[in-house]
Amino acid sequence: MPQVYALYRMAQGNFRKAFLLSANFGRDADTICALTLALCAAGQGMQVIPESWVEQVRHPSGVCLSFAKTEDLVDLGIELAHFALKRRT
């Protein structure tokens, strides 16, 4: 997590800059990149993610987890956010 926070700060919350920095970080770059970008999007909203990127990953292929083929990851994220808000109150 220290790397994630450092990359987020280095990018000043800029999603694309954070992507370039974290994807090229090395070591566990996939996880570090995912967490850094999640932090950027959490702070600024999903609109900072280019629409073409969202469409590329929105619907899983189901190759590894066949049940995931019918999922919409954006809808799932919205459902999780609503669930978390309900639990908070």
Structure description:
The chain is mainly alpha-helical and 89 residues long. The protein folds into two domains: 48 residues; 32 residues. The two termini are 28 Å apart. The mean pLDDT is 91.
Mean pLDDT over the residues: 91
Structural class call reads: mainly alpha
Strand fraction equals under 5%
Radius of gyration: 14 Å
Low-confidence stretches at least 5 residues in length (pLDDT < 50)? none
Sheet having the most strands: none
- Helices and strands, in order, run as HHHHH
- How far apart, in Å, are the first and last alpha carbons? 28 Å
Based on DSSP secondary structure assignment, what is the total number of beta strands?
0
Form type: globular
Helix content: 55-70%
**Tally of helical segments:** 5
Number of domains: 2
Protein name: ADP-ribosylglycohydrolase
Organism: bioreactor metagenome
InterPro entries: Ribosyl_crysJ1, Ribosyl_crysJ1_sf
